[in-house]
Design a protein that fits this description.
Strand order of the largest sheet: 2-8-7-6-5-3-4
Number of domains: 2
CATH topology of the largest domain: Aspartate Aminotransferase, domain 2
Oligomer: single chain
Bound molecules: pyridoxal-5'-phosphate
Order of helices and strands: HHEHHEHEHEHEHEEEHHHEEHEEEH
Radius of gyration: 21 Å
Length: 374
């Protein structure tokens, strides 16, 4: 590398073996640059954010929290934990707060897996799991996903995931529903899977989209019988608080206590704590957003299917759509028109795009742009 001052060591070789060769999480397009270029008309459908916005109560709570901006936030997040405990029927000691659930997903591997260990995730599973395993020095084992022809096209194959467990397995990551496929599995299937997992293997069920999938139930029901299970949730999606970075995990108090050792003491910020607590108190706003999403998702899925594009089943706020050989050209042409989607090349799905469900107007403009392109 040139341009530095003085002789620099080879930082790549100074990094630990686990970090050498690790590639950072790919957040998609440079949205800040695109906002600058396109202006307020940019349609952002690449990051599964909630277009209907946060509860007004959460916004008010953020403003109210600002009087204490010069103070550190509550390192225990006590008020938020008590609200979460009441909502989910768990004990405060079962809760761990994260600066987004991404942070916690990384820390599970840091705490429970290392050199010589195996971490299992599904093919087409959320990209963070592979990074977490690799950063911890463990080996990622990918179980094949369900075939495209299955009703849950490319979703998790729980039998394949269970079969991948070996004496070296420390951790299994499942996403329900999964990102980027949008697919889900039911609670009977999860129960059967958990019965096959040795008790010293930790199962992380990532429920970032659980609110969109209430009918299918939550893995939370298995916590009492499976102390090796831990469930993660986020305020970034259904609660529309992605900008404040707040997520949490629910698990056995003894597992949570071990995880607490690597938690940075003030990892969840003042505004995030206040907003999340207020958002929990506004169930009506949550339900309103979920209803809007379900309605718009159905319209959008229908529009794509009517044009001959395969749409993966989804109980989330996004759709994985197969556009075939022209996928990359379509993606770039849309970007030129100020519409941002998420390419799936990194997931080994080059003929698919992941499309966040926008509001009515955004979805209309997306479909119109696709039609114009022919
Ligand atoms: C968005 C997402 C998360 C992480 O969200 P945070 O903003 O870090 O809480 C975790 N898992 C999946 C599957 C996601 O799609």
């Amino acid at each position: 590398m040139s341009g530095g001052v003085g002789d620099a060591p080879d930082f790549e070789s100074l990094a630990t073996k686990a970090i050498r060769g690790l590639r950072a999480y790919d957040p998609g397009h440079d949205l800040v640059a695109w906002r600058r270029r396109v202006g307020p008309g940019l349609i952002e459908l690449g990051s599964n954010e909630n277009p209907w916005g946060a509860s007004p109560a959460a916004r008010a709570a953020v403003l109210d929290s600002l009087h204490a901006l010069h103070r550190y936030p509550d390192p225990l997040g006590g008020d938020l934990k008590r609200a979460l405990a009441a909502l989910h029927g768990v004990a405060v000691e079962q809760l761990l707060l994260g600066n987004g659930s991404h942070e916690l997903l990384m820390q599970f591997a840091q705490v429970f897996a290392g050199e010589g260990d195996e971490v299992i995730a599904s093919q087409y599973g959320f990209a963070v799991y592979a990074i977490a395993a690799q950063a911890a020095g463990a080996k990622l084992v990918q179980a094949p996903a369900l075939p495209r022809t299955d009703a849950m096209a490319r979703g998790h194959d729980l039998d394949a995931l269970a079969a991948a467990i070996t004496p070296r397995t420390k951790l299994v990551y499942l996403a329900n529903p999964n990102n980027p496929t949008g697919t889900w599995f039911g609670m009977d299937a999860l129960g059967a899977f958990l019965a096959r997992v040795p008790r010293n293997v930790i199962v992380v069920v990532d429920e970032a989209y659980a609110e969109f999938n209430e009918d299918a139930g939550s893995a939370l029901r298995y916590l009492a019988t499976h102390p090796n299970l831990v469930v993660t949730r986020t305020f970034s999606k259904a609660y529309a608080l992605a900008g404040l970075r707040i997520g949490f995990a629910v698990g056995d108090p003894r597992l949570i206590a071990v995880m607490e050792r690597v938690r940075e003491s003030f990892n969840v910020n003042l505004a995030g704590l206040a907003a999340a607590e207020a958002a929990l108190g506004d169930g009506a706003h949550l339900q309103w957003g979920l209803a809007r999403n379900a309605e718009e998702r159905a319209r959008l899925a229908e529009a794509f299917a009517a044009r001959g594009w395969f749409v993966h089943p989804s109980r989330t706020n996004f759709l994985l759509v197969e556009f075939g050989a022209r996928t990359s050209a379509i993606e770039h042409a849309l970007l030129e028109r100020g519409i941002v989607l998420r390419p799936m090349i990194g997931y080994g799905l080059p003929d698919c795009l992941r499309i966040t469900v926008g509001d009515r107007d955004e979805n209309r403009r997306l479909v119109a742009a696709l039609d114009e392109m022919g």
